[in-house]
């Protein structure tokens, strides 16, 4: 509501949109702003799936305007995702930058281990309109599949069944082009 009242978007604005604990801080560190949506396996992120589905459909309809990343894929291949991100916002890496190791340097700079060790992460805070929170809350473990340390196999099956039902089997079933 505050954004609706105080923010007027411009055509040149680029927006970062993710669910909490879905790699938001990581994507912001890689790029200050873009129209990028990164989702995460729902067992790692127990939040509304309908929000995610809107962005998936927007990405399918306008792939040149909505870039869709999966956290798990980004963890497997951060270099190529960073290249895609740079191309998407119109500033691809030059051959010279590639040769000079700029991509690898950015990946190291924005790595989970590096970001979590920063003084601003350990001791800083972020002020929102209603509260101030320590920056450390923006980091959990950053591990793919960490849900296994917190959920029983029965809970995982239950979440998978709900996910399958809510998304009509389109995304996680493996029957179509998008699966975890």
From TrEMBL:
Keywords: Transferase. It comes from the Eukaryota. Gene3D superfamilies: P-loop containing nucleotide triphosphate hydrolases. Its EC number is 2.8.2.-. SUPFAM superfamilies: P-loop containing nucleoside triphosphate hydrolases. Residues 51-167 form the Sulfotransferase domain. InterPro entries: P-loop_NTPase, Sulfotransferase_dom. It is an enzyme of class 2 (transferase). One of its GO terms (molecular function) is sulfotransferase activity. Belongs to the sulfotransferase 1 family. This is Sulfotransferase. It comes from Leersia perrieri.
